[in-house]
Structure formats: C-alpha cells, structure tokens
C-alpha cells in the first residue's frame, strides 16, 4: 500500500467495524479517531494509493492518529513492519486539501537485518477462518529449517494486530524466534459480527483460535478475575453497558464469571508461567 498526502474525510457507517487502528480494504487505509464511545465516531481519514501525493514504502501502514490538544492539527504515525515509524502532521480543517508534513526523519529505508511481516490464514477448531501475522526473517520463510515460535495474542480483546513496526517483535526475531500474532475472533478490523463473537465468551472460542501447547508462558498485566474487573468499571451507563455486553452480569452470570476467571483455576496450570502484574491496587489482579 502506498498512501498519499491527501486525507479524504468520509462519513463512517456505524454498522461496520470501528477502531482507532488501521482497517485495510484493498489499496486504502482507514484511520478512525479514538473516542470514549465508539458509536459516536462519524468520520475517518482515508489515505488511498490511487491518489497523487507522497509515496511511502510498499506495505506502509498508519497505526496511530492523534489530535494535538487545543488545536486543529492532527498527527499520524506511518511505518512498515521492517522500518521504524515516522510522524506526519496535517490540518484537520483542510479536509481533502490537507497536506501531510513530515515532522520526523526515522523512516528512511528498510533495515535489512530486521524481520518482515507475512499474512497467515488458517482454519480454527470450528472451521472458522482466522487471520494472523507472522514476523520472521525473509530467508527463514523460504527455507525448510524450523524455528521456535512466540505466540503473541493482542490485548483488548477488541483490538487487532496489523503489519506495523514493533520493536518488541523485532527483538524476538533478532534472538532467533518467529513471532505469530493471531487476530482471533473478537478482534477488530473484520466487521462488527466478527468483533462480537467473543461477547460473553471471554476465555472461550478466541482462546481456541491459536495453539494451546507451549513450553512456557508469560502473563503481562493479564486479567485474573472477572468479578474484580467488573467492580472496577465506572458506573457510567455507557461503560457498564459495554462490559455487561462483553462479559455478562456478575450476578446473573455468576457461574460464567467463575468458569472464565483464571483466579479460580490456578490448580489447573501445567505450563511454566511467569506473571508480570501491577501493584496490589490493580483491579484485575
């Protein structure tokens, strides 16, 4: 994808997927502003390959969009999986006539020693097609040698992995690992129906969308208890409605909460596990 320098503002169909990350359709990239209540999102900036302007590296993506506080200026981050990001600033009031002004100079050329990203489509346990992204050295993909794999499920769970530059992934590749980042059911970027497939099913189908046999595992600020999670959610109706839709009601769905909370299943852990968690006040601990 070669996005250009002219953002085109369009009305967003609220029946489709909404995300503050990139959603790629054909030769275009859609940037959606991050809002407190996603249903209020109405516009997006579209950088299309068939419009004239700046040429970015092939397969470049925009994975961050921010409005500068107190101004009508916005900044977008653009990178490729094997190239560090650069940041571009533009005027929101200029609409389709806005020009992207480069404000950093990191994204000069790809680094040959870095890994590249590759798409992987596969069938899950129930036959559903799942999309994932693999980070690896180019010669590894062409050869027959086997390499150790790190499976990296994204957080959210309503989020997604894209073909972006990730310093952590590149570190693992440099150490001889392949990184596999699955966009399991419930991920954004594949339509609203797909995003809601894990509603009231946290710890269910989306966990089965990637391998479950490992030599070791690491939990980074992981969710341990749905009861404490729900008790930490603000009482605002929008917040409460969102989480009750996704994980259920702590009273009506008490059995489900207990079934899906790792806190109640510690004795079942068989894989060596290292836990990185926040302080004792962290509501999810």
UniProtKB/TrEMBL annotation:
Domain of life of the native organism: Eukaryota
Gene3D superfamilies in UniProt: alpha/beta hydrolase (3.40.50.1820)
Residue intervals of the Peptidase S9 prolyl oligopeptidase catalytic domain: 165-210
Keyword terms of this UniProt record: Hydrolase
Signal peptide: none
InterPro entries referenced in this protein's UniProt entry, alphabetically: AB_hydrolase_fold (IPR029058), Peptidase_S9_cat (IPR001375)
Gene Ontology biological process: proteolysis
Official protein name in the record: Peptidase S9 prolyl oligopeptidase catalytic domain-containing protein
Single GO molecular function: serine-type endopeptidase activity
Organism expressing this protein natively: Potamilus streckersoni
